[in-house]
Specification:
mainly alpha, two-stranded antiparallel sheet, 2 strands, globular
Length: 425
């Protein structure tokens, strides 16, 4: 019965995403979020054999490390076709629904795991983002599946046993390494996630060490395991990022490990006209000279990064208020942009997000179905991206990758009356 219900849920999720991708227009949505055109141009540039080159009309320059290569390769895999990429993302976003079910099943009953999967299947923001040429859908799937792998039971371990140990502890070692490796690759899709392989890798190990200590009566001993997994996660991340950094050194003469987009994004978040939302056009209008000088993209990136730091240091209280505004925008239950902050978008967001956020808070604060360590592990992406975007710009779509693990917490609030711990299975 559970398998049939799960299959029906996955089929419904896929149909909703494919249907949205088929019905909703292409050009109109591309114009609403111009970042999509950059990814399309990069994917098509790769298909032409020109490499990862993008013409930046703002500065009249060709940039070569402005975007990381991961999502551009994904677009190229779809032949640079919006319809094809939408179909691919419908499939991979449906796989995220399955990943949520498997992640929840580590600690919850089948019924509660199905509830968590349903929250993902009918998430209106996930459905909508799956039809956009943006990196959120691909990255969200990679993050969700990595967390499944990090918590994959090893030989002799049943469901509900919690995340498996990291390297050196035997069971679950292969799943842990593949999970951290997948997180490392995901950084090439979303560079701001560069610390997540370490945080989640260590987090999974600490949860396991704590559980092992409780089951064996060894107290807190075993937390030393975190040192080894942390070093291994860092090494895997460096190994994955090294070819990209070396390519940038060869092309630009500088070791760029992420992108040359970070500086202007930081200044977008900390400048005299900043509101917490992204609006680079406001300050770029006052800098027409940038389009006529001979700076490289690396020099522009450093210039904007330094100006952002200088502004935040000179205006600490305003920087704190801006950070609060970005956090509020990121976790708003409804869209706030001019294009999406009204009508069906507003009410769909409100009717979905508000109950789910309340359930998540209830599961986090009141419900005892999940252990404190597991809750911390599931909260890592949410806390991480909240801090990252408090230092740049805030938007509802930036929280989407953190929502699948939060759905497990929300579903735990529905597991039993009073959220009581279930008997061991």
């Amino acid at each position: 019965m559970t398998r049939m219900t799960l299959a029906a849920l996955l089929a419904t999720a896929l149909a909703a995403r494919l249907g949205a991708g088929w019905v909703l227009p292409v050009e109109t949505l591309l114009d609403r979020l111009p970042d999509q055109r950059e990814y399309l141009d990069l994917g098509q540039s790769l298909l032409r054999g020109d490499g990862l080159i993008l013409h930046d009309a703002r500065f009249g320059d060709e940039v070569r490390a402005y975007r990381a290569p991961g999502y551009a390769l994904w677009v190229a895999t779809g032949a640079g076709s919006v319809r094809a990429v939408r179909a691919m993302q419908a499939v991979i976003d449906t796989s995220t629904v399955l990943a949520v079910y498997l992640l929840a099943r580590r600690w919850l009953t089948a019924a509660s795991a199905l509830a968590a999967a349903a929250l993902a299947a009918f998430n209106p923001f996930m459905i909508y983002l799956s039809i956009l040429i943006l990196s959120e859908t691909l990255f969200t799937a990679m993050l969700a599946w990595a967390m499944v792998l990090l918590t994959r039971p090893g030989p002799g371990r049943g469901r509900g046993a919690g995340p498996t140990p990291g390297p050196g502890s035997g069971p679950g070692r292969a799943g842990w390494i593949v999970g951290v490796g997948l997180l490392a690759v995901s950084v090439l899709v979303r560079p701001s996630a560069i610390a997540l392989p370490i945080l989640l890798g260590v987090g999974a190990t600490l949860v396991t060490a704590r559980r092992a200590a409780l089951s064996t009566g060894t107290g807190g001993r075993g937390s030393w395991l975190a040192a080894g997994p942390g070093a291994i996660a860092m090494a895997l991340t460096i190994a994955v990022m090294l070819p990209w950094a070396w390519r940038n050194h060869r092309v630009l003469g500088t070791w760029i490990w992420t992108t040359t987009n970070g500086g202007i994004t930081a200044y977008d978040g900390f400048n005299p006209d900043a509101t917490g939302a992204s609006d680079q056009a406001i300050f770029l209008r006052d800098m027409p000279w940038l389009a006529h000088n001979d700076w490289t993209e690396v020099q522009r990136d450093r210039y904007f990064a330094e100006r952002a730091r200088a502004y935040a240091m000179a205006n600490p209280w305003r920087a704190i208020r801006l950070a609060g505004s970005k956090i509020a925008r990121t976790w708003s239950p409804v869209p706030l942009s001019d294009d999406y902050g009204h009508g069906v978008y507003f009410y769909a967001g409100l009717l979905y997000s508000l109950p789910v956020q309340l359930l998540t808070l209830w599961g986090l604060v009141v419900c005892r179905r999940l252990s404190p360590g597991v809750k911390v592990f599931l909260m890592i992406p949410a806390v991480y991206f909240t801090l990252v975007h408090a230092m740049s710009v805030g938007s509802l779509r930036y929280r989407i990758p953190a929502e699948p693990p939060l759905m497990v917490i929300a579903a735990s609030a529905l597991s039993r009356p009073g959220c009581q711990v279930e008997p061991a299975r």
